[in-house]
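user: can you give me the structure for this one chain? tokens are fine.
assistant: on it. calling the predictor now.
[tool input]
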Amino acid sequence: MPSYEFVCKECKKPFNRVMTLAEYEKGGIACPQCKSKKVEQKPAAFFAMSAKKS
């Protein structure tokens, strides 16, 4: 399952949540610290790997 990174807009605490795509699409993610639903997803780090050697 994918791991998503969020930041709470109320208490400014970052947190991770592991959930299925269906759970993510439902929304309703709340901050585990202050229980606020005003959260923003952080951009994920992404890199591509190929079998071709350079």
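assistant: here you go. Residues 3-41 form one domain. The chain has one domain: 3-41.
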